[in-house]
Amino acid sequence: MGNNFYEQERSLEQGAVGESLGRYTAKTFLTMFLGLLVTFGVALFLTNTYYGLYAVAYALYYVPYIHLILLVAELAVVVGMTACLHKISTATATVFFFLYSLLTGITFSVIFLCYDLASLILIFGATALYFGGMAVFGFVTNIDLSRMRNILLGGLIFLIVMNVAMMFIPALEVADQVVCTVGVIIFLGYTAYDTQMIRSFYGAYQGDEAMLKKASIFSALQLYLDFVNMFLYLLRLLGKKKN
User: What is the C-alpha to C-alpha distance for residues 216 and 202, in angstroms, rounded to an integer?
Assistant: First the structure.
């Protein structure tokens, strides 16, 4: 984006070839929403049905290091999709996205078992509200949010370091509320930033329809990750655990 941001803005305001920016953005958010539907649908099925609970219990008991396996699989999907985005087809990128959504749903099933269903619904609603507000801001603002990139990246590194440290240094758990609050703020910022990046991709790939579609799926993945991470931090901060 950088110094070309305002030139891109003027270009988009004058119109572009193909579908409108609004329609392109709506498709991107629809893809993100469908990914969330898969994730939360899988998690709710696994935690609220007999066969789902049986599958979770079986995996936890009989599959060693199941959490690590799921984590590696999720990372592999995201890294693979990101690294090969220019080479893979639109269909393959879509498969990557929904595969990641499915894997995250399986991971969420264990988390959902620990929290009250009413609390999960409330936190989901709060996340949707915050996410929606920042997405609208990112779409309508003329401020170049790429200037926030380094700040957001620094905050993300802080979150990773603190979360890893808390796994090995129990005394640091007293700072959990601070970490969760910072996490919510960071992913609110990323939501606005990634929404504006849709506009940037739209302007950059107008001459390449295939790449434009893949950029939409990539943006959907980024926004999906923003929503999921914001949800998890709000859940840690405000969620009510089962007795």
Answer: 8
Return the amino acid letter for 89. S
Q: What is the CA radius of gyration of the chain?
A: 19
Cα angle vertex 237, ends 103, 49, to 5°? Answer: 40
Say how many CA atoms lie within 13 Å of 221 toward its Cβ. 26
The model's pLDDT over 177-207, given as tens digits with 9 standing for 90+, comes to: 899 999 999 999 999 999 999 999 998 888 8
Quick one: 86 exposed, middle or buried, by C-beta within 10 A (0-12, 13-18, 19+)? Answer: exposed
How far is it, in rounded angstroms, from Cα 218 to Cα 210? Answer: 12
pLDDT digits (tens, 9 = 90+) for 9-64: 455 444 445 678 889 999 999 999 999 999 999 999 998 888 888 888 888 888 88
Side chain identity at residue 14, one-letter code? Q
Q: Whole-model pTM above 0.85?
A: yes
Separation of alpha carbons 66 and 61, rounded Å: 9
